[in-house]
Amino acid sequence: MRLSHHSGVAVALLAVAFLALDVAPADADGTWPTDGGGAGSTVTVVQPADQSATVGDAIVPIRVEATDSDPSRILWYTAADLPSGLTLSPVIGAISGTPKEAGTSVVTITVSDGTGPTSSTSFTWTVAH
Fold first, then answer.
1. I need a surface site. Which of 6, 62, 83, 87 has the fewest CB within 10 A?
2. Edge-to-edge strands, sheet with 103-112
3. What is the CATH number for 75?
4. For residue 110, is it within any domain?
């Protein structure tokens, strides 16, 4: 069998797709897949202090601290209601960016270890003009 250049691309794409399936984060319904290995583990997230910022000024990045009773687990971070212009790194839990609109948000951070246990915390973020 002779492989063309395009066949190699297809094989590479299949390999990447296979690897991606092995580390899939949340399912379509927003829940985390379970493998049974984390049964009994506990995820704990530390509540950040309330934050303030100014529209157009980049924030000093903050890291949301979290731990898992099973240190072999990787933690995944999600955020709800971050001010416009700010983002959360899903792997390291760092919030960064430049606020785009003034207002007050109650931000909720949820942390999961991918096996079922989650922990959430909320804090207020005020963005001024």
1. 6
2. 51-54, 118-128, 103-112, 76-80
3. 2.60.40.10
4. yes
Please state the pTM of the whole predicted model: 0.69
Question: Does residue 85 sit within a domain?
Answer: yes
- For residue 15, tell me if it sits in a domain: no
- Domain span at residue 55 reads 31-128
Is 92 inside any structural domain? Answer: yes
pLDDT per residue over 19-64, tens digit each? 333 334 444 444 444 444 446 789 999 999 999 999 999 999 999 9
Q: Give residue 75's Cα distance to chain centre.
A: 8
* Helix, strand, coil content of the chain in percent (nearest 5): 15, 35, 50
Does residue 105 have a pLDDT over 50? Answer: yes
Q: Give the contacts of 53 (CB within 8 A, at least 6 positions apart).
A: 59, 83, 99, 125, 126, 127, 128
Q: What is the dihedral of CA 96, 99, 105, 109, to 10 degrees?
A: -10
pLDDT given for residue 39 in this prediction? 60
